[in-house]
Write a structure and sequence with these properties.
The complex is a heterodimer. Chain A is an alpha+beta fold. In chain A, 55% of the residues lie in helices and 17% in strands. Chain A is built from 29 helices and 24 strands. In chain A, a hairpin with a 2-residue loop joins strand 4 and strand 5. In chain A, 38% of the residues are buried. The model of chain A has no long low-confidence stretch (mean pLDDT 85). Chain B has one domain: Winged helix-like DNA-binding domain superfamily/Winged helix DNA-binding domain (Arc Repressor Mutant, subunit A, Orthogonal Bundle), CATH 1.10.10.10. Chain B is globular and about 50 Å long. Classes of the chains: A alpha+beta, B alpha+beta. At the A-B interface, helix 3 and helix 4 of A face helix 2, helix 3 and strand 2 of B.
Chain lengths: 870, 105
């Protein structure tokens, strides 16, 4: 019984039988076991085990030294053949390396971009515990999904729910002119925020006290850059900034500049108290002016769910009565901070967000381009297999087994990919300024980035090396030495089929990308040229917050109209592209209220904006009652309300909760796009009320705008002395909504160019390979009288067929993909068949050009040269 | 005249001494006895293999035994060439020691 247990360690036996010459290991194992038992019987099992282990050491040592020696020798040989191959076939090596490098450079840039997008808002300490309170639900039969929350929410959350560690509101302030001494700037990035703002978020203060910086009214915290702008190197603390020539704000702190990857962007933070001092009703009002964002920080992330479950009670207590009046069911939700940039599609977001869809698109582009580049490598490697076949045959004859060869070829492809990475890094360096201007991202590469970049780069090298090298390795290592060494070997039909599939694959992807580019461009053009219901060209808008202007509006308008080149002037709350306010209204004939968008405007608005009245009349200065009684509605409103004869009907507009002012509809305006073409037109009221007028819209004659602007500036000095002339063009602002599409288009077009360039590099290589292989055939054909054209046709026919096939496959793929993208737009271009046909033909033409360069060269070579050797 | 290395020499002498009982374990013990150094078993096989390749020793497979885990002993025997080599060694050794005094140290 004991006999069984006294056995030498299995591991030891296995090592010996694996590593020791088979001629020896049988007797050695026997001897060792005998000695082991003898020792075990006399000195115990553990001693004998130790002894056994010691016996193995020299075996291991000699094995390691041996394999290092032979491995080193083989490695030297592998390296030599690899380098020799690279050097001897400069053209192919160039195609291979540059193709891979282009693909890698694209991927690296895209990795930078994706990493930047994914890093949004994660720099805050404990970012997983920060949530934004949003409101989602139904109101009046329409979905309501807003990123904002009522002003008093934050304090009630803070006092009633112990799991909330901090709650902070932030709301944007309108454009303000800010002055210090003789420096004055128009500031668009001013926000109000609670004192807790600096604690909920990680915006570290460089100067000032976190606890008190935003406590008192009329205090302001600046970012470093803003502080430098006003105060240079001086200490800003305790100095005063003059807002709108009226109020003095004391600088109580300076924070570090906001990182680029923060969805909250601002230049100055005023204390929330300031806004309560200016508008005392705001503090306690749950209903009016819901325009601020509320963020909470929880003690632990798992408290989110239970806390969210408690919020309906709060909603019911504070807003239940009003919601009932609007047939609404709205709930508070907690949205994780990290989701805001990429996954939030609510109304009234803090700023323009990214879109996770684009992350997926870009990731797909990176994979596609890299795949195309890897396919190139595979193609060229298998096409050239005949050249390596003899080497493989010889290696096999002298004892290489298949595994050795596979490792050899994978090693070669990986080192090629390493070389490609070096070249790619040079490309990246060169393309970086372009990348930054397109993506708007400033890359900073420090130690922190290198910590993940270097492993990522090596991962990329390995992935590309193995992906590109796998098929050639398997294919080449399978070559039969007998066949090769007996006489020339041709690349078999199997590898030819594989190459064709790869060429088709490359061009499917390239053509699909070209179609994508065309469709995006079409959509942009469509949106820009679509009849948006008003004339956005030649309209200048002047921002003003000067109350004096409102009081003397008629004189101001008259003064501006005196400027030569000015056709119309109108004061309004918003011009198209700026968004609009909303208000609760009760239209005639319906018992319940609803929420409509509205703008305030004077009687010249429609004329200035080139909008048309389809029913009833425009506002008139001559009808005195208009100024407090009249409203215009758009066609959509009429349709929504189902009114046959809208003129003369009344709509009651909420002044505050349960207090309404009736207005009479005097006319119907033709529908116009007020916000963007992503959204369909919604009901809109134009209120002829001279309140909240913040913009003067100026219609110019189509002439030299620069001249007119100079004149307007002069006039502005007399109208609003000491105020900046802060203006923009309506068409520019309106077209800004296309910016993300235009960016996508630029990125897509450059990447699809690259994709097709890489595919063509491969095609070029294949064509030259084919031309070389068929050199003799071409020579004979030429001697027998074939024309150059016939030979070119012979060489390029197959490639053209493949590209044509690729187009056929790419069309449905691209059709499906572009449809998915277009569905995101309310107004979308139709897909033209010509986009598809043209892209296919374009790819075909490029392919033909690539192939025929080689084909013509081969065909026009003197047959004597190719035939004289026989 | 080519001379064997010391370890080869020791092994050759051990095999001669052990006669029909010369297998790995026994050879090692013989050498340990003579040198007082605890030779690793593995260190024996290299020289043994070398001697075998030089045709100085021949191997004879024995019967498998249970205490060896069912593996057969491999016995070593001197070939004629091995025997000659051994003679040479002895001659050289006695020739070089000839006439020296006994060492007292």
């Amino acid at each position: 019984m004991k006999f069984r247990t006294v056995r030498p360690p299995r591991l030891g036996e296995r090592i010996i039988s694996r590593l020791v010459d088979p001629l020896v290991h049988d007797q050695a194992l026997g001897d060792l076991e005998e000695q082991f038992r003898w020792l075990a019987a006399r000195k115990g099992l553990s001693i004998s085990r130790l002894w056994y282990g010691l016996q193995i050491l020299p075996v291991l040592k000699s094995f390691i030294l041996d394999s290092a020696y032979w491995g080193g020798a083989m490695f030297k040989n592998y390296l030599k053949t690899a380098l020799r191959n690279l050097r001897k076939q400069k053209g192919y090596s160039f195609l291979n390396i540059s193709g891979l490098a282009l693909g890698m450079a694209c991927s690296i840039l895209i990795i930078f971009y994706i990493h930047h997008e994914l890093s949004y808002d994660r720099f805050h300490a404990g970012a997983d515990r920060i949530y934004r309170v949003t409101m989602q639900g139904m109101l009046n039969g329409e979905p309501l999904n807003v990123a904002v929350a009522p002003t008093p929410l934050a304090p009630s959350l803070m006092s009633g729910y112990p799991e909330i560690v901090g709650a902070a509101r932030i709301r944007k302030r309108d454009t303000t002119s800010v002055a210090f001494a003789d420096k004055e700037f128009i500031e668009t990035g001013i926000v109000y925020a609670d004192p807790a703002f600096l604690e909920v978020f990680t915006f570290p203060l460089i100067r000032g006290d976190v606890k008190t910086a935003l406590e008192r009214p009329y205090t302001v915290v600046l970012t470093e850059r803003t502080a430098r702008k006003y105060f240079g190197r001086d200490d800003p603390l305790g100095k005063f900034l003059k807002f709108n020539n009226r109020a003095d704000f004391a600088v109580t702190g300076v924070i570090k500049d906001i990182p680029q990857n923060s969805h909250l962007k601002f230049d100055m933070v005023c204390s929330m108290e300031t806004s309560f001092v200016m508008d005392p009703g705001l503090r306690e009002n749950w209903f009016s002016d819901i325009s601020g964002h509320t963020y909470v920080r929880l003690g632990r992330p798992e408290q989110k769910k239970p806390l969210e479950a408690k919020l309906p009670a709060l909603m019911e207590e504070k807003m239940g009565r009003a919601l009932k009046a609007f047939k609404g069911s709205v709930q508070f939700h907690l949205q994780p901070l990290a989701d805001i940039h990429l996954r939030s599609k609510l109304q009234w977001e803090y700023g323009a967000n990214g879109d996770i869809l684009y992350i997926y698109i870009f990731a797909a582009i990176a994979v596609v381009i890299l795949t195309i580049a890897c396919m190139n490598f595979m193609n060229l490697a298998t096409a050239r297999s005949a050249r390596r076949a003899r080497e493989v045959g010889m290696r096999k004859v002298v004892g290489a087994c298949r595994r050795d060869l596979i490792w050899q070829f994978l090693g070669e492809s990986t080192s090629t990919s390493l070389l490609a990475l070096m070249v790619a890094l040079v490309f990246v360096k060169l393309a970086l300024p372009l990348f930054q201007s397109i993506s708007g991202i400033e890359l900073t590469i420090g130690a922190g980035e290198l910590a993940w970049l270097i492993p990522a780069f090596f991962g990329l090298v390995l992935v590309v090396g193995f992906a590109a090298g796998s098929y050639p390795a398997v294919y080449l290592s399978a070559i039969r030495p007998v066949k090769v060494l007996k006489g020339g070997v041709e690349a078999g039909p199997e590898s030819a089929r594989f190459r064709r599939i790869l060429v088709v694959g490359q061009f499917v992807l390239s053509i699909a990308m070209i179609i994508g580019t065309r469709v995006i461009a079409d959509q942009i053009r469509y949106m820009k040229s679509k009849d948006i219901g008003f004339q956005k060209d030649q309209v200048l808008a002047i921002r003003t917050s000067d109350d004096k202007i409102l009081q003397t509006l008629d004189q101001v308008k008259a003064r501006l109209k005196e400027v030569p080149g000015v056709l119309e002037v109108s004061a309004t709350s918003r011009v198209p592209g700026q968004g609009q306010s909303t208000n609760a209204v009760i239209p005639e004939g319906s018992g319940t209220g609803t929420i409509y968008r509205y703008i305030n405007a004077d009687a010249d608005y429609l004329r200035t904006m080139g909008m048309t009245v389809v029913k009833g009349r425009d506002f008139s200065k001559d009808i005195l009652s208009d100024a407090h009684d009249a409203i215009l509605i758009n066609e959509t409103t009429v349709r929504k309300l189902g009114w046959d004869d809208p003129v003369g009907k009344t709509i009651k507009i909420a002044l505050s909760f349960n207090k309404y002012q009736p207005k009479t509809v005097v006319g119907v305006v033709k529908d116009f796009n007020f916000t963007s073409l992503r959204n369909s037109i919604e009901p809109l009221l134009i209120n002829n009320e001279l309140r909240e007028l913040e913009v003067l819209a100026v219609k110019l004659k189509a002439a030299d705008a620069g001249q007119v602007i100079t004149e307007l500036k002069k006039a502005w000095k007399t109208i609003s002395p000491g105020k900046l002339f802060d203006y923009f063009f309506v068409d520019e602002l309106f077209d800004a909504q296309f910016r993300s599409e235009e960016r996508l288009n630029r990125i897509f077009s450059s990447f699809s160019l690259l994709a097709i360039a890489i595919a063509c590099l491969g095609l070029f290589g294949l064509a030259s390979f084919l031309a070389e292989k068929m050199k003799k055939e071409i020579g004979i054909r030429r001697v027998l009288g074939a024309s150059i054209g016939q030979v070119v046709g012979l060489l390029s026919r197959e490639f053209l067929l493949l590209v044509g096939l690729a187009a056929l496959i790419a069309w449905p793929v691209a059709y499906f993909a572009t449809n998915v993208w277009l569905r995101g737009f309310a107004y979308r271009t139709s897909l033209h068949p010509w986009t598809f046909i043209g892209s296919g033909l374009g790819a075909l033409a490029i392919a033909l050009l690539t192939v025929s360069v080689q084909a013509v060269r081969a065909a026009s070579a003197n047959p004597v040269d190719s035939l004289k050797n026989e | 005249m080519k001379l064997l290395s010391r370890i080869d020499e020791l092994i050759l002498i051990s095999i001669w001494k052990l006669g029909r009982e010369a297998y790995g374990m026994a050879i090692r013990e013989e050498i340990i006895k003579a040198t007082g150094v605890n030779w690793l078993l593995g260190a024996i096989y290299g020289p043994l293999g070398r001697l075998h390749r030089q045709k100085l020793v021949a191997t004879i497979k024995g019967e498998p035994t249970p205490e060896r885990g069912g593996r057969a002993k491999v016995y070593y025997e001197l070939t004629t060439a091995g025997l000659k080599e051994l003679k040479k060694i002895q001659a050289v050794n006695s020739a070089i020691w000839e006439g020296t005094e006994k060492i007292h140290a």
